[in-house]
From TrEMBL, chain A:
This is Carbohydrate ABC transporter permease. It is found in: Cell membrane. Its main location: membrane. SUPFAM superfamilies: MetI-like (SSF161098). The chain crosses the membrane at residues 12-35, 73-96, 108-128, 140-160, 181-203, 256-275. It holds the Pfam family BPD_transp_1. It is a multi-pass membrane protein. It comes from Cohnella hashimotonis. Residues 73-274 form the ABC transmembrane type-1 domain. It comes from the Bacteria. Keywords: Cell membrane, Membrane, Transmembrane, Transmembrane helix, Transport. InterPro entries: MetI-like (IPR000515), MetI-like_sf (IPR035906).
Automatic annotation (TrEMBL), chain B:
PANTHER family: BLL4140 PROTEIN (PTHR43227). Keywords: Cell membrane, Membrane, Transmembrane, Transmembrane helix, Transport. It comes from Cohnella hashimotonis. Residues 72-287 form the ABC transmembrane type-1 domain. This is ABC transporter permease subunit.
């Protein structure tokens, strides 16, 4: 066997295996879309795999006509936007002063922040705090406790530190105030990292679930994930108990659950291709000082 | 005199820091102060300050409880199994992606392999149910077509372990390749060419150049993983677990939620949370120490 053929065999096997992995990655999505688009009869008979059978849009019609589902989506969009803006303002406000090595007390401030990366009070004291502040069942319970991620803050500080000092000094000679330097020089140069961290905050909030489970009981304030969880959990329980014997309730039709999952997934899949390069560069930034 | 000049120049920086520091003090140190609940017979009417001190009674109760050790065991078991199954996956995938010659295919596969990382565990839970369900699930349909009976992936605790682990690989393997691919771009190209001239095949090159080039990255990630052995996220075991598989799916984070917020035993739940935080801190510091020794580079 020559060098060239063995190389070709390697490449072919490699590409085939990768294709299989990619398909495994995609198959669950296709399956759930297929279920959501199939008739109940086809789903229950177990005939649906990757393509819809007896095309049926009923499930989507009921999801879209379910006002609470649509309301939840709208609320989650609002919540995500609000959280991202607040988080970014706070993270920038913390990062900029901490890049000044001459700032008195800087080491103490950094210590205060870094400690929280390694030790926390745990969810019970956090819950009691949120309750004592009368934030239960308010939007703020989902925004305030996670305002600054120390990890993202450190990424931002190291990015700010990478900006040439001569630019800042020139601005100071021209009489710029600290605020002026921040808004006119630092921020315009930091747009890529600002975009990346905003995305991380946004995805975190969009996917966040535990805090809403703890702090929210009012249905008007249910984020999409919590709403979906209740639907899915019903189905898990019914699938699990179905093994125990007949006569168990069929709460919601499979296709309806599948349609709800698709409904909650589509927004993130729609924005994903445009945001991908930011995601990747964000990890790289994080890796520099992980 | 000097002080006022300094302050006139820098007051804006301190002004910027006020709110962020207030955030850390209130929302991070507040709960740390609240940890004293673990040493008190806490009830809501008397509040944290008003509740009576009970010393280590609650710790004694927790360390005598069967449920605590079960959830501790499950946490370690799920993390160790996850490490064995999920740790090599991104490494292998990254090497495979690195070897691909068609740029468009490489980029397309990367894009698709990253997607599951951005799907929430709640949605993954919904997908898992549809894929592994006994009635119409994708996997069971496939097994049925091969003539096998339905496998209880969600309701039998041993099969459930498979479901939990497989889901973890699916969610994280693609995303995990990023760090390895970044490290791979740092390897000197000449090494590959030299190896080719010397007549080394592709597998030999992977073994003698690619893998050694990733050694530090592998070691660092392994150490970080070991440092997180006792930490476990809440969403994944909570969403994928269910009543039938509680024997394996109940972990420290879900146990704290259950005892604390569902049954109102705040003191006991705080004790468990504190135990997890302290042991976790020791693990992380130990991992950092090991990392400094092994790779001359701390992870902190």
């Amino acid at each position: 066997m020559t060098e060239r053929t063995s190389n070709r065999i390697f490449d072919t096997v490699n590409v085939i295996l990768l294709t299989i992995f990619v398909l495994i990655c995609l198959a669950p999505f296709f399956h759930i879309v297929a279920i959501s688009l199939s008739s109940t009869r086809a789903v229950v008979s177990g005939a649906v795999t990757l393509l819809p059978i007896d095309l049926d849009l009923k499930a989507y019609r009921s999801v879209l006509s379910d006002m609470s589902m649509v309301h939840s989506l709208g609320f989650t969009v609002f919540l995500t936007a609000l959280t991202t803006v607040f988080c970014m303002i706070m993270t920038v406000a913390a990062a900029y002063p901490l890049t000044h090595t001459k700032l008195k007390g800087r080491k103490v401030f950094m210590f205060i922040i870094v400690v929280t990366m390694f030790f926390s009070g745990g969810i019970i004291p956090e819950y009691i705090l949120v309750q004592n502040l009368h934030l239960l069942n308010t939007v703020w319970a989902l925004v305030l406790p996670g305002l600054i991620s120390p990890f993202y803050l450190i990424i931002l500080i190291s990015f700010f530190n990478g900006i040439p000092n001569s630019l800042v000094e020139a601005a100071e000679i021209d009489g710029a105030t600290q605020f002026g330097t921040l808004f006119k020089i630092i921020l315009p140069l930091s747009l890529p990292v600002i975009a990346t961290l905003s995305l991380f905050y946004a995805v975190g909030r969009w996917n966040g679930f535990q805090d809403s489970l703890l702090y929210i009981t009012k249905t008007e304030l249910y984020p999409l994930q919590l709403k979906l969880y209740q639907l899915v959990q019903n189905s898990m329980i019914s699938d699990v108990t179905r093994n125990e014997g007949p006569g168990v309730l069929h709460s919601t039709p499979e296709s309806l659950k599948a349609a709800s999952v698709v409904f909650a997934t589509v927004p993130i899949l729609l924005v994903y291709p445009w945001l991908q390069r930011y995601f990747v560069s964000g990890v790289m930034l994080g890796a520099v000082k992980g | 005199m000097r002080g006022t000049v300094y302050f006139r120049r820098y007051w804006q920086l301190y002004a910027l820091l006020v709110l962020p520091l207030a955030y850390f003090v209130i929302f991070k140190y507040g709960p740390m102060w609240g940890v004293q609940i673990a040493f008190k017979d806490f009830n809501f009417f008397q509040g944290i300050m008003g509740s009576e001190w009970i010393g280590l009674d609650a710790f004694r109760e927790v360390f005598h409880s069967h449920d605590f050790f079960k959830t501790l065991r499950n946490t370690l078991m799920l993390n160790i199994l996850d490490l064995i199954v999920s740790f090599p996956a991104p490494l292998i995938l990254a090497i495979m992606l690195f070897e691909v010659k068609f740029q468009w295919f490489k980029r397309l596969s990367q894009t698709i392999l990253y997607i599951p990382h951005f799907i929430s565990w709640v949605i993954i839970g919904g997908i898992v149910y549809q894929v592994f369900g006994t009635q119409s699930g994708l996997v069971n349909n496939f097994l049925a077509s091969l003539g096998f009976g339905p496998v209880p992936f969600l309701s039998d605790k041993h099969y459930w372990l498979f479901t939990y682990l497989a889901t973890g690989v699916w969610q994280s393997a693609g995303w995990g390749t990023i760090l390895y691919l970044a490290a791979l771009t740092g390897i000197n190209r000449d090494l590959f060419e030299a190896a080719e001239v010397d007549g080394a095949g592709r597998l030999k090159r992977i073994w003698h150049i690619t893998l050694p080039g990733l050694k530090t990255t592998i070691a660092t990630l392994l150490i970080i993983n070991l440092g997180n052995m006792i930490a476990i996220g809440f969403d994944r075991p909570f969403v994928i677990g269910n009543k039938m598989v509680m024997d394996y799916s109940d972990v420290l984070s879900t146990y704290v939620y259950r005892t604390g917020l569902e049954s109102g035993q705040y003191t006991l739940a705080t004790v468990v949370g504190l135990f997890q935080a302290v042991v976790g801190l020791v693990f992380v510091l130990g991992a950092n120490y090991a990392s400094k020794k092994l790779t001359d580079e701390g992870i902190l």
